[in-house]
Amino acid sequence: MYAIGYDIGSSSIKAAIVDLDTGKQVAVVQQPQQEMAIHAPQNGWAEQDPEVWWEHVCTATRQLLSKTGIDHKEVKGIGIAYQMHGLVMVDREGQVIRP
Q1: Does residue 16 have a pLDDT over 90?
Q2: Is the pTM of this model over 0.70?
Q3: In the chain, which ranges are continuous DSSP H helix?
Q4: With contact defined as beta carbons under 8 Å apart, do 17 and 26 qualify?
């Protein structure tokens, strides 16, 4: 059995897969390879598109599973660490309202 940990930062998404029996890291990936863009529409503001984070989480997950040959059914849990002071505003349907 395995778990995947995600570090969702403002520069990139880091993901690691861990063997739950041994507690040892099996593989780590980072998406994207270059830093994600940060938009600053006003002085003191910093915004990113949450949909871009999601795309990179999905890509990183596929990379981890492909790189290790682990079947997704063997992943029994996930953990998420998130950037400090982040806010994602969504409407009633869960759609992102703005960056």
Answers
A1: yes
A2: yes
A3: 50-68
A4: yes
